[in-house]
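Study this pair:
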Amino acid sequence: MPLLPPSPAAALKARYGENYRWLLLMAVMVGTIASIIPSTSVNVAIPAMSAFFQLGQERAQWITSAFMVASTVAMLVTPWLLGRFGYRATYAWAIGLLMLGGISGGFAQHFELLLFSRVAEGLAAGIIQPIPAVIILYAFQPNEQGRAGGIFGMGVVLAPALAPALGGLLTDWMGWRSTFFMVVPPCLLSLWLAWKYVPSSAPGGSTSGEGSGKLDVLGLGLVSAGTLGILNALVAFHHSHLKAALLAGMAAVCWLAFILWQQRLLRTQRKPLMDLRLFATRPFVMGCIVAFIYGTAMFGSTYLLPVFIQMGLGLSASYAGNLLLPAGLILAITIPWVGRMADTQPTHWLTSIGMLLLALSFGLMLWAGPGMALWLLAGFIIVGRIGLGFILPSLNLGALRPIDRALIAQGSSTISFIRMLGGAIGVGLCGIVLEWRLAVYAANPAMDAAQGRIQAFHESFVMLTVLCLLAFAAATQLRSPARKSAP
């Protein structure tokens, strides 16, 4: 007997009426929020976990890296899972895995079990996060997809804005284990909502299991090895350039082998892990370029800004949190407004505006220094978050609308994977550039130490500015096709 009885989308729509699509969106939004919480709330407890498990910096960074690597790779498996098991089973089992990871991490007495819990949470998050874009494009008419994406984005963005602050309070009051248990209540709510509103069918309304084929295990192994290789190369760069070069070379070989293997599967009419036919559509290619750089800039700045506020400006961690919180709230307000605009305005212009605002925010940070008004610094950060508010509802629509509907699930998972890979690389890249410039200025006896630190941070922000301008050039090519009236 199956764990979750079948309940086709048509029957659910008949039961709940025309508003069913919004109930479905709410159900997956709660699950996505649950999957985002572990990526941000646990980070504030890393010092406490390092002290408990007696970890050095190199081992402690795997608390974050294990989640990001697992999440990045798992995103490519989502289309196969949806085709094989359907929306409801895939979603519910992923939520269950997320909750298991949170509980096991909260009770962990050994570092190995803690890492296992982070891998489990990352796998679950990677499976869950591409699903909403698939549902929005299938369940909503073109003239309301932007509004749906905006409402969904507003809810999802509040999680990373509020979770670190809540995680910090819980760590101070109840210890680091409480940050893992934060995920349990939204997971339980997600399971109940999945039972009521998420259909058991596969994308497009087909019966789960039809034509899903076998999972591309070899492709999954190659892409996992390539991802681990490039991330380990970034970590190794701090200690040994030779080791970093060898790891980067290994990653390049794995990626090349992965691409060749995916081409072979397509030629032999088998299901690839990443359908390379997606890249025959120019807007999708441009969307992937924007997604990669956007991921690099967003995750890189999420790492760089708090470090700059504390190391560069000499402010406390609580000041850093307070300066970042208003920007997160402004972002949550911006997203639904831009989402409504995406239903009537060209998505490539909205995305382009967002990339320009993000570049402007990083450029303005060149004027940030000791003694500047904190409200002005918060304003610089807010400009960038408004930019993200323009990008988030528009990017997926601009990249996924032009592709064949049969490839929407593949497209959503691929662009999510590329964005997450860019984010993982962005954190490492910002760390490398910052450490390099700090070392250069520390070796210069003519420069004051505090001035050298500020200059090193400024040059790191210049790098992010240039990357965002490159993404702006790609975003201008993210042109959606002419809309067709819904039948």
Remarks:
- Residues 1-7, 481-487 have pLDDT under 50 and may be disordered.
- The radius of gyration is 22 Å.
- Residues 201 and 207 are 5 Å apart (CA to CA).
